[in-house]
Amino acid sequence: xxxxxxxxxxxxxxxxxxxxxxxxxxxxxxxxxxxxxxxxxxxxxxxxxxxxxxxxxxxxxxxxxxxxxxxxxxxxxxxxxxxxxxxxxxxxxxxxxxxxxxxxxxxxxxxxxxxxxxxxxxxxxxxxxxxxxxxxxxxxxxxxxxxxxxxxxxxxxxxxxxxxxxxxxxxxxxxxxxxxxxxxxxxxxxxxxxxxxxxxxxxxxxxxxxxxxxxxxxxxxxxxxxxxxxxxxxxxxxxxxxxxxxxxxxxxxxxxxxxxxxxxxxxxxxxxxxxxxxxxxxxxxxxxxxxxxxxxxxxxxxxxxxxxxxxxxxxxxxxxxxxxxxxxxxxxxxxxxxxxxxxxx
Length: 345
Ligand code: DOR
Ligand code: ZN
Hints:
Elements: E1 4-8, E2 11-15, H1 20-31, E3 36-39, H2 50-63, E4 71-77, H3 84-92, E5 98-101, H4 121-130, E6 134-136, H5 150-165, E7 171-173, H6 179-186, E8 192-196, H7 198-202, H8 205-209, H9 226-236, E9 243-245, H10 254-257, H11 272-282, H12 289-301, E10 309-314, E11 323-326, E12 329-332, E13 342-344
Parallel strand pairs: 2-3, 3-4, 4-5, 5-6, 6-7, 7-8, 8-9
Antiparallel strand pairs: 1-10, 10-13, 11-12
Helix pairs in contact: 3-4
């Protein structure tokens, strides 16, 4: 039986760090285990220009604990007014690594997202030309479409047409939650990949809804039925390099989660790696963990694998703080509701 695992230091290919007191509270949790992260731009107001990304990056660097070896990989929030020249200049300067597409209204702080996809075609064409990947929140926002179907419908109605009309555009389907999305990636050629979160590998909608509603399991895209979780787990543990970790760790103050209208997002950063080791071990796939956390993402983004290593050791059930202070508030740490045995050092 394996009791110790040494992996190349992981990266998080989809992360929300927020700003101000929340940034200060959550950044050390990611920097402790991860070398790099793709930082989401959905601040209020969003990070839309190269100048915005530069100043947000400076705020992140200023909030890093002393000696932390962590590099934020910045993104721009795509709007119908995004200037292709500004985007290309930020990409050429190494200031941004990717651009994020939120369909307008799809999730937290997505009001400035895209409504008419024809209006962003020139930007997407420019991105294809310069090799800047598009990270996609893949859900339609049409009220007619059931929330559990929104990802599958997005693939047919929006994603597939975009990919056909802008060939050469590198696309990451972020936080996939369905078998449909996992299959779409599998059935398509190079230039398409998907990130998968911790919670979507561990939980299904029953965990969120049976016996009472658990707000700390509510995120978007919403947890789906068990068959989908199984398909995601099969994809993540397959060794296929097109699937990699994006935690989508998305902190909200506890009062905003435990509210009449609960904010979407699971704050998984502090225990993400322990959770993953637990599920990969249960699937008999510990040998595939390093690919998922540390190798496949850099390969897709054309970045080097981290030289530093991280060690996971199996032992007594992990105890961890269920809540962290965040300025005047607290932020509740995701608890998968099952014992975790892998300790990270
Ligand atoms: O659950 C989510 N939370 N999904 C998203 O897409 C956004 C995120 C957030 O920013 O809180
Ligand atoms: Zn996200």
